[in-house]
Amino acid sequence: MLTAPRTIAPFVNVVVRSFADAADRASIEAAIAEVRKTAGRRYPIIIDGKPVEGGGTFASVNPGNPAEIIGHVGAATLEDASHALDVATKRFQTWSKTTFEERADYLFRAAAVIRERRDHFNAIMVLEVGKTFFEADADTAEAIDFLEFYAREALRLGNPPPLVKSPMP
User: Fold this and answer.
1) Domain presence at residue 7
2) Which of 59, 80, 125, 136 is surrounded by the most beta carbons within 10 Å?
3) For residue 10, how far is the Cα from the chain centroid?
4) CA–CA separation, 143 vs 118, rounded Å?
5) What is the DSSP secondary structure assignment for residue 49, as one 8-state letter?
6) Can you point out the beta strands (E) in 4-115?
């Protein structure tokens, strides 16, 4: 369902948490524990909605504890990259006909998912990239802000007001 412009609240930046609050710390620590339950999982390359075996995998490790493998990520071959570009070129034919309202709706929905799973995204950055709680939360908040801002901009620019009122009826 498309989000009607008149129902969209004005843009407000997501507030970054300081984690001085015990509940905020407990929330991200719980998310880290959940992410660790899936440590070592394999993440294949996905092309055209299908997993591709590609050129094997490589380990993504916790930079703060290199013995901790977060996951095994698929490595693409040159053929995989070429196939992905072919698929993207083909899919562009449909995407190019997507209205600005639909595109904005995708952005709003992506922002909502990230907002809902904020601590999960933070936990991944803490474990896989070595971010502090604050840095991870700031990056997640910024991602939500970008999605929300550009969705609003798409709606604003999609129906611009006339530059000059015409004296003609």
Assistant:
1) no
2) 136
3) 21
4) 10
5) T
6) 41-43, 45-47, 50-52, 57-62, 65-74
Sheet (strand 65-74) strand order: 41-43, 65-74, 57-62
Q: Is residue 153 part of a domain?
A: yes
Q: Tell me the CATH number at 150.
A: 3.40.605.10
**Model's pTM, two decimal places?**
0.86
Give me the tens of pLDDT residue by residue for the chain, a chain 169 residues long: 555 555 788 999 999 999 999 999 999 999 999 999 999 999 999 999 999 987 899 999 999 999 999 999 999 999 999 999 999 999 999 999 999 999 999 999 999 999 999 999 999 999 999 999 999 999 999 999 999 999 999 999 998 877 787 788 7
SS3 at position 154: helix
Distance CA 93, CA 95 (A): 6
The total number of structural domains in the chain stands at 1
Establish if 142 belongs to a structural domain: yes
* CA neighbor of 136 nearest in space, from 60, 27, 11, 23: 27
Query: CB 49: neighbour CB atoms within 10 A?
Result: 6
Identify whether the C-beta of residue 38 lies closer than 8 Å to the C-beta of residue 30.
Answer: no
